[in-house]
Design brief:
heterodimer, A: alpha/beta, seven-stranded mixed β-sheet, six-stranded antiparallel β-sheet, 27 helices, 18 strands, about 40% helix, about 15% strand, globular, B: mainly alpha, about 0% strand
């Protein structure tokens, strides 16, 4: 795993500027650095050495010098692809998957992406026609951002925003529409980032860049079309396939020239991964977990149970309010976006524990909930659709009571009101995003906190913010999203539709980025996700939806398939969403000084993002409440993290860090041109 | 105070409470007496409890669990009528 940066075009930067960009990403690749300079091309690479430690340096060229690449990621099936490519006559000089990428592209062109099973972002230069090819994996495990200079002909790309911003020619103004989206659905929709000048290459997309022209195409998208579903197979047959496919997904993710460990949360998914990995990795298997002081968030009894059951070498980290508060600025520095929960903070500490334990790679359970129907969101959707078929039924809505996370235990008095809350838009079952209406409308209720509310219109980079004082049109916002769904979406099963939204937004925009890649790579740790193996996905899309969410039992098939491998209590327990203390930590009386300063009327006014009176009232509400509401919790974390983002990325300056040793230095600029 | 309460006063007082405490002093559009709090996304479950707490303290009434329904509490006018009914019962 690594960090990549680059500039392409007539105004591509010189060596010193490239080194400055690279230095912003030392955490992603502390082992060594490499750079390539050519006329109109600057590529930089920071390496976290995992595969082929001796000869896998980058930027790497193909054996004939036609292609150059900077690559961040892993192609887990590189050994199989290498054999295939060798049989086709390709020559390899290294053992690395980077060279498989180069030869794979030479052989199959864009279609090589469909053959790669892994997680990656890369930029490839074809010297024959001076074209560039940038691509990102299916789910967006690895990040890739880009910007263009004002002449529009020079492209700047990098694994993280901060490297792009290290070039002072790139402006850093808020994209207020993106901020609005983050409040509504917790992520930046489409290819936006919190900054107007920077875009992200979306998961499953590639870009071609030639002569200043930039074309983005989608090469992969979640597709749950129903004609693929194998309805008639037995449950036992599915169990066998689930076990073998996941075992293989784990096996190829153990391919590394360094030890591989695992995160063990005590839930079903990470327990399955650890169990499967333990089998193929019998020696000293190391697992890591987070423990909390309060029982609401803590899962340590299950973690200890699983660690003892599997006999892993286990380390647990106890998270306190102090550790969350003290690291929160660093969390935003790495997440590079406002966030709605503090949950990434413990993940930052956990990756440090992994690193301090001498490990660089961990397997984790992300993706299981999306592929196998694990979220309460899916149950909520199912119950509401069931209720909508007979709206006058007194008992159908009572199924909502089973969604523990949605009906706060202390608020049973308000149950009648709560049903009415879920009744909103009940009959719109034909709408594409029915499953997510309630979540989004909840987020929309926070928009009045924004000082630019009603929201602003799109505005071009560098122009003054143009205020459009028309009321925010919730329905229009939703319709815009719903108009951009895969072909044939209306014929998908209801669960598949909900899975799609969860994958499109939450998985790639938050789980894999803010809580995944960024928090792990902050401490130079690579996360690998067996549930996101392409073959696991292909299996999941052929599986009947009722084997994923059976009645209201989430991940039914996983429980069935692994019930003999795990302790019964782990198999049977309901999903406990991973959370950490939000307002109770940030507003802890002993720790909240920074929060108070940031959210003071002066602090709010200075940054200009939120309504100072509203924020003052929000603080009072949180202060007065022994248990702040979900909405207030979310509002506080969003507002505070937006302020921190503002300080770090809008007002802040990018200070170069220390670079690792430069082991690869390629200068293709003709000597004559160098001195011009 | 409670003996001379009229529905308009209740509506105005509750409106002010909701505007300042639930909506934090900012609102997209004016809060009309018949606006549904649920339709406008103004209340979540905690918000309802807060509102009930306010009604009980401010008007000296006790809201039974079965009365915490949208019919009684989902708009300013509904609350006005509900509070007056409760006051007349006491």
């Amino acid at each position: 795993m690594c960090g990549i940066v680059g500039q392409i075009g007539p105004q591509a930067c010189d060596e010193s500027q490239l080194l400055r960009m690279m230095s912003m990403l030392t955490h992603r690749g502390p082992d060594e650095a490499g750079l390539l300079l050519a006329e109109g091309v600057s590529f930089g690479h920071l390496r976290l050495s995992i595969v082929d430690l001796r000869t896998g340096q980058q930027p790497m060229t193909s054996y004939d010098g036609q292609y150059w690449v900077v690559f961040n990621g892993e192609i887990f099936n590189h050994l199989e692809l290498r054999q295939e490519l060798e049989a086709l006559g390709h020559v390899f000089a290294t053992r690395s998957d980077t060279e498989v990428l180069l030869n794979g592209y030479r052989q199959w062109g864009v279609d090589c992406l469909n053959r790669f099973n892994g997680q990656w972002a890369f930029a490839l230069w074809d010297r024959t026609d001076e074209s560039f090819f940038l691509a990102r994996d299916r789910w967006g495990v690895r990040p890739l951002f880009y910007s263009s200079l004002s002449n529009g002909k020079t492209l700047i790309f990098a694994s993280e925003l901060k490297a792009i911003l290290a070039d002072s020619r790139v402006s850093c103004h808020w994209d207020l529409k993106a901020l609005q989206d983050i409040f509504i659905c917790w992520i930046c929709e489409s290819d936006r980032t919190p900054l107007q000048s920077v875009r992200q290459l979306l998961p499953g997309c590639y870009m071609r860049f030639k002569n200043g022209r930039c074309d983005v195409h989608r090469w992969w998208e979640v597709d749950y079309r129903t004609d693929l579903v194998e309805w008639d197979r037995s449950e036992m047959s599915w169990c066998e396939e689930v076990r073998s496919t996941l075992a293989e997904a784990c096996r190829i993710r153990l391919r590394a020239d360094v030890p591989v460990g695992a995160y063990l949360s005590g839930g079903l998914d990470s327990s399955i991964i650890s169990s499967l990995t333990r089998t193929c990795h019998p020696d000293d298997f190391r697992t890591f977990s987070i423990a909390f002081a309060d029982s609401v968030h803590d899962e340590s009894p299950y973690q200890q149970l699983m660690a003892a059951y599997l006999g892993t070498n286990h380390r647990s980290l106890r998270i306190t309010h102090e550790s969350i508060v003290n690291s929160f600025e660093q969390v935003i520095w790495h997440a590079e976006t406002p966030i709605y929960r503090t949950a990434p903070a413990p993940m930052l500490h956990l990756s440090r524990l992994v690193r301090d334990s001498g490990m660089k790679v961990v397997l984790t359970g992300e993706g299981s909930d999306e592929l196998f129907g694990g979220y309460d969101q899916f149950k909520e959707d199912k119950v509401r659709r069931f209720w909508a078929r007979s709206p006058d039924s007194r008992w159908r809505k009572r199924l909502l009571d089973r969604l523990g996370a949605n009906i706060p235990n202390a608020n049973l008095r308000t149950r009648g009101f709560w049903y009415a809350f879920y009744q909103k838009d009940l009959y719109k079952t034909e709408h594409a995003a029915y499953s997510h209406y309630i979540r989004w409308r909840n987020g929309m209720s926070l928009l009045p906190l924004l000082s630019h509310y009603p929201p602003v219109a799109d505005c071009a980079e560098g122009t003054e913010i143009e205020m459009k004082r028309s009321p925010f049109k919730m329905d229009q916002w939703i319709e815009e999203l719903e108009s951009n769904v895969p072909y044939g979406f209306d014929r998908w099963h209801a669960l598949s539709k909900a899975q799609y939204w969860e994958t499109r937004q939450y998985l790639s925009g938050y789980l894999l980025s803010s809580q995944g890649d960024r928090m792990a790579m902050a401490n130079s740790v690579e996360g690998r996700y067996p549930f996101l193996d392409v073959n696991v996905y292909e299996m999941a899309r052929r599986m009947p939806p009722n084997l994923k969410l059976s009645a209201l039992i989430e991940k039914f098939i996983l429980r069935k398939a692994f019930h003999k491998d795990l302790p019964p209590v782990v198999v049977q327990r309901n999903k406990q969403p991973y959370r950490s203390p939000d307002a109770p930590a940030l507003n802890d009386p002993l720790l909240r000084q920074k929060l108070i300063d940031s959210l003071s009327p002066e602090g709010t006014k200075k940054r200009g993002l939120f309504n100072p009176q509203a924020i003052a009232k929000l603080l009072v509400r949180i202060e007065k409440s022994s248990q702040p509401s979900a909405r207030d919790n979310m509002a506080l974390v969003l507002v505070y993290s937006s302020h921190i983002f503002h300080d770090l990325f809008v007002e802040g300056k990018m200070t170069p860090r220390t670079l690792p040793l430069v082991k690869t230095y390629v200068n293709l600029i003709p000597a004559k041109a160098r001195y011009n | 105070m409670t003996q001379r309460m009229d529905p308009f006063t209740v509506v105005e007082e509750v409106k002010e409470y909701i505007l300042q405490n639930i909506l934090l002093g900012v609102s997209e559009a004016p809060l009309e007496p018949d606006d549904s709090f649920l339709q406008r996304g103004i209340l979540d479950s905690t918000g309802v409890l807060e509102l009930v707490g306010f009604l009980e303290e401010h008007y000296g009434i006790t809201c039974a669990d079965k009365e915490i329904t949208p019919e009684n509490l989902d708009s300013l006018n509904a609350i006005g009528a509900y509070v007056l009914r409760k006051l007349n019962q006491s």
